[in-house]
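Collaborator request, handled under Task 6.
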Amino acid sequence: MFDQLKNIDRELLLTINDLNSPWLDAVMWQLSSSWHTILLLILFAYYFSKKIGKQILLPFVFSVILTFTFTDLSTNIVKHRVKRYRPTHNLQIKNNIHKVNNYEGGKYSFYSAHAANVFGQATLIFLCALWLPLHLRILIFIYPILVVYSRMYLGVHYPSDIVFGAIVGVLTGLAIFQLFKKYIISKKIGNEFF
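C-alpha cells returned to the collaborator:
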C-alpha cells in the first residue's frame, strides 16, 4: 500500500510538472520566490494597524516572525531526519523533471518549507482579519495554493510534501494566533476584535 501511495505521489508530481510552457515557467518561478510574500505581509500589517490601531502592529509582526521561525525550523529538522530526496535529486525520476532556470532546490524535500510558511501566515491573517466578511477571508488562501502549486510545477516537491507542509503551517498559524489572542491582544486592546 505504501508503494502504491508513493507511485501515485510521483505520478501526480510528474503530471503537474509536465504541464509546462515558457510563460508558465516565468510565472511559477516568480510565485516560488519570497519577495511578494514579504510585501503582502507588510501590506496586511499596515492595514491591520490602521483598522485596529498602531499598538497592535508590533505584536502582529512578532506573531508573523514567530510563525515563520517555527515553520522554517521544524521543516529543516524533519527534512534532515527523513532524508527524502527531492524529485530533482531522485535518481529514478530526475531526468524526467522539467527544470526552470536549472533550479533543483536543496537535497531533501519532506516536508515543504514554502507550504508550511505560506499556509502558516495565511492562517494567521485569516484568523486576525475578523472584520472582513468570511468569503473575503477565504480568498486569502488562494495565494498559498498558487505558491505550493509552483513548487510542484518546478519539480522540487511531491504533493505529499506540500500536503504535510500545509497541515503544519495551518496548525502553527492556529497555535500562534491563540498566543497572540490570549497573551498579547487581551493585554493591549481587550478582546473586542477577537
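The cover message to the collaborator said: "Helices lie at 2-18, 22-31, 35-52, 57-82, 113-128, 134-139, 142-153, 159-188. The mean pLDDT is 88. Please let us know whether this matches your experimental observations."
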